[in-house]
Design goal:
Chain lengths: 255, 255
């Protein structure tokens, strides 16, 4: 009989979020679990790593019967510590999330959830990031858990090409209301940023980053289109950022 | 006569680093400058943004005669604050760096310097990140300054395709010893991570992230090859992380 899969679980909303508890539940039937997750909220941390401060790692009893740790660093730090310090062998699968809020479109760059999955892909580990389009702390993760279980099972069975991970976003609502899976590309939607400028009690200015998410992409093959049409979006994601199509142009005008 | 270019300058090594001072010097002849840079070292911050803490912005007299500000956040925060709060019109060009240390290969994902340039590209602003292959605080930036000036001039003259920025890495050494520019793709080189585990004075464990950079790419068209052969590497860089080549496979096994 094949060995039981070893599944590494992380996120960016911290070990205390409902999203990671839901992901742990969804993965339980699939194999042996190890959780290494941030001890504080690490949303928006992108692919940040901690190199100017030491990292702390602590055993956690957050999930009874499951080996779990909190880390003082970012989601990418969690993945590195898990692989190189915590786990005795390399995981069969890495899952990250379930994020409270969308990581479709350009959010893949800002997202700690997805950066953890991308770090898994860099390490050659089949990896999936899951996000639910609901920011609330007590969001309903039932449909997300069902899709997380299905997709993790498929990835364990089929494996992913080395260097590819999946960015999975799930619309709100009950599973029976969703239209199923759709394989997509990353949509071209951007943040129209703005800052909320305030004064602290001592007269100093400070700013909160806010913004409007604007979909400028008319394609029907994007994650944004899929989500707007009540599909679960699945974007195969990689980490070669080269603009290959522009190499010839650059050669023309630089050399 | 055309208006003088408006150039936004940022980095990740902080406003006090020699690298950004060198970049300011290199850009002076090219237009009007505005500097918005982190007040502390933000190396390895990738595409992180600050969403759970307020941001501070302070006027700086770091560069006499030049409008400059420090920001309490990440390099990407600096770019957003510069564009949406500080600057009266959009910059003609964004330059980031000159970083103390290489941002070739996979480093593009971890690098605050390059994430600032990528953020510029997301905003549709022609953007370049510069990095010198020398981590030392007093590195010799002479050759880097010369190449920064040349490439910024070329980008102002030619413009870049929207959504593309440049990742420029410069080998150590005097300009006359370098072999010129080479347009490249991002090389497949990764960190073999390891952690240096230590005990604090109170008996607690902590970890420093360390590692070896390993080039697994045999191509002669990579930034890593170019740098090893004493060329200045120029990688056109974009932010669509979709693994387009894998969409068909995924459709086969998921649907």
């Amino acid at each position: 009989m094949a060995e039981s899969p070893l599944i590494l679980i992380t996120n960016d909303d911290s070990i205390k979020s409902k999203g990671i508890a839901s992901l742990v539940e969804a993965m339980k039937p699939l194999g042996e679990l190890v959780v290494v997750a941030p001890d504080t909220v690490q949303s928006g941390k992108g692919h940040a790593i901690t190199i100017h401060d030491p990292l702390r790692l602590s055993k956690s009893d957050q999930f009874p019967g499951i080996e779990a740790y909190t880390c003082s660093g970012t989601p990418v730090d969690c993945v590195k510590l898990a692989i190189y310090e915590v786990m005795k062998k390399r995981p069969t699968l890495l899952v990250s999330g379930i994020n409270h809020g969308s990581n479709a479109g350009i959010n893949v760059l800002y997202s700690g959830t997805m950066s953890a999955a991308v770090e898994g892909a860099i390490e050659g580990i089949p990896s999936i990031g899951f996000s639910l389009l609901d920011h609330s702390a007590d969001a309903d993760f039932d449909a997300s858990m069902s899709y997380a279980n299905k997709l993790a099972t498929l990835v364990i069975q089929n494996d992913l090409q080395k260097g590819v991970c999946l960015n999975v976003n799930i619309p709100r609502g009950k599973e029976e209301k969703l239209n199923g899976l759709k394989i997509c590309r990353q949509g071209r939607a951007y943040w129209e940023d703005s800052f909320d400028k305030r004064k602290d009690p001592f007269g100093g200015d400070y700013y909160w980053l806010t913004g409007e998410y604007t979909d400028t992409d008319k394609g029907e093959d994007t994650d944004l289109w899929a989500l707007a049409n009540n599909f679960v979006s699945v974007v195969p994601t990689q980490f070669d950022m080269t603009a290959h199509h522009f190499i010839a142009n650059l050669n023309d005008w630089i050399l």
